[in-house]
Design brief:
Layout lengths: L1 H15 L17 H20 L3 H14 L2 H11 L5 H14 L2 H7 L10 H14 L5 H8 L6 H14 L4 H10 L5 H11 L5 H13 L3 H14 L5 H10 L3 H16 L3
Helix pairs in contact: 2-3, 2-4, 3-5, 4-5, 5-7, 7-9, 8-9, 9-11, 10-11, 11-13, 12-13, 13-15, 14-15
Length: 270
């Protein structure tokens, strides 16, 4: 087991390093050599040993948060190594949150990959989507849309990645087009989650589509999603549509969602 961990750490550190003259993409790391590389690797190993050696969950969480707040390349690489293959959902989620605070191309690539939003684990996917959303980095949009448009993606994951895509790149034409298309999907849950998500676009087109859904959708869950979406726009001109839903919609869940959305908009709470 110790040998496997050592090999895995070496592989992760190697993957995290980009080339000096031609990084993998904009924002990549320069190559570390000699004493600088040794210092970096030693610090990663120290932080990783600290995380893996601590048995108290509260202290582990504190270590993760401290590393995320401190930032730096070594801290980032230690968190990536710690999260990779980790079966503790709580630790993975906290590591993702800490990585999102550090940000950068390497973090986006990791959270967008098979250990993140492309994972086979639903909870890991949702945590990764939330972390990507918090970075507000538009380069995360492609991976999020890839997952959103994958037919095998579960509904709850779909909701998380759609919301994240709208939050990281609300002006991106591909994001706008994809999310609007999903509001017309066959599955009720897909339309519901997409309706919630397009509100984060906060555009005239999003409000128009959500208002249309409130008028034409037969499914109460989808109309509820439309109310939430209108609330997510945080725009006062969405309120008349919500007030109309309160007055005319027969479904109590829709009325309640509309009321909550109005309160959100008027309170200015994101």
């Amino acid at each position: 087991m110790a040998a496997w961990r050592t090999w895995a750490l070496v592989a992760i550190l190697a993957a995290a390093a980009a080339t000096t003259g031609a990084p993998a993409r904009a924002g990549g790391d320069p190559v570390l050599e000699g004493e600088a590389k040794k210092k970096h690797d030693d610090e990663v190993k120290r932080l990783l040993a600290e995380l893996r050696g601590e048995k108290n969950k509260v202290l582990v969480a504190g270590h993760i948060e401290r590393i995320g707040a401190t930032g730096g390349r070594a801290g980032r690489d230690a968190l990536i190594a710690f999260a990779t293959g980790n079966k503790n959902q709580e630790y993975v989620g906290k590591a993702f949150t800490a990585l999102a605070k550090i940000g950068g191309a390497t973090v986006i690539d990791f959270l967008s990959g098979k250990e993140g939003v492309r994972s086979g684990d639903t909870l890991v996917q949702i945590e990764a989507a939330g972390a990507l959303a918090s970075t507000k980095d538009p380069t995360a949009a492609k991976a999020l849309l890839d997952v959103a448009t994958n037919p095998s993606t579960k509904s709850e994951v779909l909701g998380a990645v759609c919301k994240a895509a709208a939050q990281v790149a609300p002006k991106d034409e591909k994001v706008v087009e994809t999310l609007l298309d999903l509001t017309k999907a066959v599955k009720d849950m897909t339309r519901q989650y997409a309706a919630d998500a397009i509100g984060w676009l906060a555009s005239d087109a999003a409000i128009a589509r959500l208002a249309e859904m409130l008028e034409t959708e037969r499914n109460g869950g989808v109309r509820t999603g439309a109310c939430r979406g209108l609330g997510n726009t945080m725009r006062a001109d969405a309120i008349p549509y919500l007030e109309k839903a309160i007055a005319q919609d027969k479904a109590l869940q829709v009325k309640d969602a509309a009321s909550t959305a109005i309160t959100k908009i008027r309170g200015g709470a994101k």
